[in-house]
Design a protein that fits this description.
With about 200 residues, the protein is an alpha+beta fold. The protein is built from six helices and eight strands; from the N terminus they run E-H-E-E-E-E-H-E-E-H-E-H-H-H. It has one domain (about 5-190): Pnp Oxidase, Chain A (Roll). Helices cover about 20% and strands about 30% of the residues. Pfam families: PNPOx_N.
Length: about 200
């Protein structure tokens, strides 16, 4: 049976830390498309305190999450165990986008592991509801390893390539909502600097 939790206690933090991936869901306020994104690289997610989490948002094929957060802030993160111990954990909350040119970014960046090229932002989530579910129908999978393809792809990109992404497919959501501001591109010296 599902259980609701008061805060992100040590047991929940261990469960989150053991997952190799997570899923992020958002939706626009009116009409439009619901977005559900899988996220990899386990060092890109951090529990900041009992009711706050964050993850590194890397450049991708779209920018739905950022656009939806700018629109209404609603976000759900789901962790799903594929091991013998079945469990699904959902974090419901309000998210905000912290860009590399924001003063808060440098401190947030210290909560994450390895340097990943192509960091677009940090998404910070104020968690309002924490609930798990059994996950009994989720299949078993064995983790072979993390897929290095996105990091390898981003490592070959130039500052101009990322700026073009902001002006292009990362400027607006597929429904036309504003996402990244082309007038204020991500500064490369912050974007590619480790803490």
């Amino acid at each position: 049976m599902a259980k609701e939790f008061e805060h992100l206690d040590e047991s929940l933090r261990r469960f989150i830390g053991a997952q190799a991936m997570f899923f992020v869901a958002t939706a626009p306020s009116e009409g439009g498309r619901v977005n559900l994104s899988p996220k990899g690289y386990r060092d890109t997610f951090a529990v900041l305190d009992d009711h706050t989490v964050a993850y590194l948002d890397l450049f991708g094929s779209g920018v739905e999450t950022i656009a939806h957060l700018r629109d209404n802030g609603r976000i759900t993160v789901m962790f799903c165990s594929f091991t013998r111990n079945s469990r699904i954990l959902r974090l419901f909350g309000t998210g905000r986008v912290v860009r590399p040119d924001d003063t808060e970014f440098a401190e947030l960046r210290t909560h994450f592991g390895l340097e990943h090229p192509g960091i677009r932002a940090v998404v910070v989530i104020d968690v309002e509801r924490i609930a798990d579910a059994c996950g009994y129908s989720v299949p078993y999978y064995e983790l072979v390893g993390e897929r290095p393809v996105l990091d390898t792809h981003h490592a070959r990109k130039t500052e101009e390539d990322f700026a073009r992404r902001i002006e292009g497919d990362n400027g607006h959501s597929i429904d036309g909502l504003a996402a990244l501001d082309a007038d204020h591109p991500l500064p490369s010296e912050v974007q590619r600097t480790s803490p």
